[in-house]
Amino acid sequence: MSTPLLEDPVSMANATLVATASDLDQILPQVNRFRMAEGILHSDTETGITVGYRDIRADDWWAADHVPGRPLFPGVLQCELAAQVATYDMLNNRFEDEGEKPFVGLGGLESVRFRAPVVPGCRLVMAVFLERGGSKICRYMCQGYVGEKMVFEGKILGVRF
Predict the structure, then answer these.
(1) Which residues are within 8 A (CB) of 157 and not within 5 positions of it... i.e. 6 or more apart?
(2) Nearest residue to 132 via CA among 103, 102, 159
(3) How far is CA 80 from CA 38, 52, 98, in A?
(4) Is the pLDDT of residue 138 over 90?
(5) Is residue 16's pLDDT more than 90?
(6) Sign of the C-alpha dihedral, residues 148, 110, 108, 72?
(7) Does residue 137 carry a pLDDT above 80?
(8) Is residue 111 within 8 Å of residue 104, measured between CB atoms?
């Protein structure tokens, strides 16, 4: 049985940005080379769905060494992209304004699957859906798409510190 789609990946791939890379630098703790999310395309507090993306480039810092001659965007970086999109949702949509933003860390991964290779020249669109939210832990269903193809899925736990 196939997993139901969180969002329409084709319409989301070129949606107008809700948050730019500059905005993310003000929200996410990861910066420079380790900020995987390049923008947020959709964020809906009512449905609990947030969608971000990363353009996969041949000159990215990992590309020359992760399978030389056939660069593959590393699965662990796909997980990091999903975690950053979920972190954006947690910090931007889930916590009341308490002055200083809390730190959100990775609490765990569940049922992660890589369905197809992600290679330079594509846009990886990552959708996250809040399954369960609390004051300390949020659990997200995550799906990554290249075009219409789901290439990644799993669950991520974000923990507020």
Answers:
(1) 106, 107, 108, 109, 110, 137, 138, 139, 140
(2) 159
(3) 12, 12, 26
(4) yes
(5) no
(6) negative
(7) yes
(8) no
